[in-house]
Amino acid sequence: MIALVDTHAHLDYIEREGNDMDTVLSAASDVGVSWVVNPSVTPDKFPDVLRLAERFNNVFAAAAVHPTDVQDMPDEQWQAQVEAMLDHPKVIAIGETGLDYYWDKTHIETQHRFFRTFLELGRKHDLPVIVHDRDAHEDVHRLISECPGVRGVMHCFSGDAPFAEMMIERGFYISFAGNVTFKNATNLHEAAKSTPLEWILIETDSPFLSPVPFRGKPNEPSRVRLVAEKIAELKGIPLETVAEVTSENARKVFRPCLS
Ligand SMILES: [Zn+2]
Ligand SMILES: [Zn+2]
Fold first, then answer.
1. pLDDT tens-digit profile of 85-108?
2. Pairing of strands 129-134, 152-155
3. How many domains would you assign to the chain?
4. Which residues contact 122 (CB under 8 A, 6 or more apart)?
5. Which of 11, 29, 43, 185 is at a distance of 20 to 30 A from 37, taking alpha carbons?
6. Alpha-carbon separation of residue 64 from 20, 87, 253 (angstroms)
7. Which domain holds residue 244?
8. Of the bound ligands, which one is closest to the alpha carbon of residue 157?
9. Residue 140 belongs to some domain of the structure
């Protein structure tokens, strides 16, 4: 039996859509998923995310404000709310944060301010930062470079091979999601081929971005196996190797307390 880690799944969304979480997580463990990271998008979702992490041994949480939600945050409160979360033993990362110029081009300064704060928090608490980057590669790289010593994950990687290399130089892992299985995702295929396996993570970003052959349908953690299979195919190596090394990478970056 192989062991996989889904390093990015919005389980709270899946639950809110009326799914039974025992069923969802046992389907995942049936295909080898050993643990899952559930990032938060806004402080009002923290209670749901924490409740799931407390209920399931193999579910861990991350806390931050998603870049498309920053414009709605009341000043002062959010930072204290996130910092309060970081004391919880199941909170193992800052996330998700980052920059999104695809959905929101009008609050770029606010996005930068939040992203900088979360990078600083990651450095201060020695926690990995889960970075969302949509059409913002250059600024993501620049802001991370301005915070030396910070470490983390480029979640749902959407750049090309040279950008992956630049982020690895900054200490960031490259996390591939369901879009790496898309036929026309040539840049991602090249990035997966050239990125050393020691720097690769896998994720679903469920309920979004289902891999082929479930494209367009709601996603769930069990489908991280399809991402692992695609990486194995692209690199021409056994699935077992992808599973073993990406799981070890996930342990190194997130340092979960696995009992
Ligand atoms: Zn994201
Ligand atoms: Zn996400």
1. 999 999 999 999 999 999 988 889
2. parallel
3. 1
4. 94, 128, 129, 150, 151, 152
5. 185
6. 25, 13, 17
7. 4-254
8. 1
9. yes
For residue 36, give the CATH number of its domain.
3.20.20.140
Give per-residue pLDDT as tens, 103-157: 988 889 999 999 999 999 999 999 999 999 999 999 999 999 999 999 999 999 9
Rounded to the nearest 10 degrees, what angle do helices 137-145 and 108-125 cross at?
A: 40
The whole-angstrom separation of Cα 2 and Cα 102 is 36
**Close Cβ partners of 153 (under 8 Å, ≥ 6 residues apart):** 7, 8, 93, 95, 128, 129, 130, 131, 172, 173, 175, 201, 253
Q: Give me the phi and psi of 206, to 5 degrees please.
A: -65, 150
Report whether pLDDT(259) > 80: no
pLDDT tens digits for range 162-218:
999 999 999 999 999 999 999 999 999 999 999 999 999 999 999 999 999 999 999
Contact present, 201 and 5 (Cβ < 8 Å): yes
**How far away, in angstroms, is 205 Cα from ligand 1 center?**
7
pLDDT score, position 133: 98
Task: Work out whether the CA dihedral 115, 174, 25, 60 comes out positive or negative.
Answer: negative
Considering every ligand atom, which ligand is closest to the CA of 97? 1
Average pLDDT on 241-246 reads 98
Q: What is the pTM of this model?
A: 0.97
pLDDT at 76: 76
- Judged by its nearest atom, the ligand closest to the C-alpha of residue 99 is 1
CA of residue 154 to ligand 2 center, whole Å:
11
The pocket of ion ligand 2, defined by CB under 5 A, consists of: 205
Q: How far is the CA of 23 from the centre of ligand 1 (A)?
A: 24
In a domain, 129, yes or no: yes
C-alpha span between 242 and 259 (Å, rounded): 23
